Amino acid sequence: MRTLILLALAGLGAQLVDGSLGMAYGVTSTTLLLAVGTNPAAASATVHLAEIGTTLVSGASHWRFGNVDWRVVAKVGIPGAVGAFAGATVLSSLSTAVAEPAMSLILLALGVYLLGRFTFVGFSSRNLGKPLRNRFLSPLGLVAGFVDATGGGGWGPVGTPAILASGRLEPRKVIGSIDTAEFLVTVAASIGFLAGLGHQGIDLAWAGALLVGGVIAAPIAAWLVRHVPPRVLGSAVGGIIVITNTRTLLNSDWVGAGGALATAVYVVLYAVWAAALTYSIREHRRNLAREREEGRTGTSGGPADTAEDAKESAPSA
């Protein structure tokens, strides 16, 4: 019973992060299952079974709060399901010893870019509203789905930063759309695991505990992502990506760092992340104050300009 309660709490925490930042449920939950001795295929299968419920509730919650772009969901979700099914069926024979650190290097670079961009520049609306093309979303979904199934997590860490970096969709809709599309990915991965493994090694009670915690957190996370400023949200996502993938690299055969060196690296990264979040929050508040001041004086698109524009754009009788 104690294990089930801990798993439920882990599921709650993982979904709270995943639903508000667009990543980390699979990585967090799978890591926990591996730590208690579950084999990789069974751990990934258990987490994906739980995610069928959590992603369904999360997607509905994001839709309720207006965080979903259904065109993006379809364009990235369907290829993602194909990739997830393929990844699930070959996991038992696939070695990710080389692929995992290579992917982590790419994601680490993207995370550094996002952290710097959103912290020091903020969210640019220059490309906002431009369509995300199939030739970008389809390969992205295919790769992210495959990585998600073979690594026990990866849909969010691959999909969220890639779409965020395009600047064509506001952060809350990126996260909401990725979370909603993940339902298709988890269903396909679960079918693939059940076809390849049956029920061997899959603990349905553990999956149920993760599910309960995730379902409780999903609506809270969907509300949170709607109210967190894009600039702050981008800095938070960038920091998560940097820390997560640094950990993967430090533990890989490529680096093999541990002990005092790894601890020192984590201390520095967390300090940088905290400073970045503090700066983002401060700049966001400063920009809000500036916008309110401009609104009172009628400059830069304030009320005075709006009134004049309304007169000029009114149709003549």
UniProtKB/TrEMBL annotation:
Region called Disordered, residue ranges: 288-317
First-listed, main subcellular location of the protein, grouped into a coarse class: membrane
InterPro entries found in the cross-reference section: TM_pro_TauE-like, TSUP/Inactive_protease-like
UniProt keyword annotations, A-Z: Cell membrane, Membrane, Transmembrane, Transmembrane helix
Domain of life: Bacteria
Topological category with respect to the lipid bilayer: Multi-pass membrane protein
Compositionally biased tracts (Basic and acidic residues): 308-317
TM regions (residue ranges): 102-123, 181-198, 204-225, 256-281
Compartments it resides in: Cell membrane; Membrane
GO cellular component: plasma membrane
Similarity comment: Belongs to the 4-toluene sulfonate uptake permease (TSUP) (TC 2.A.102) family.
Protein name: Probable membrane transporter protein
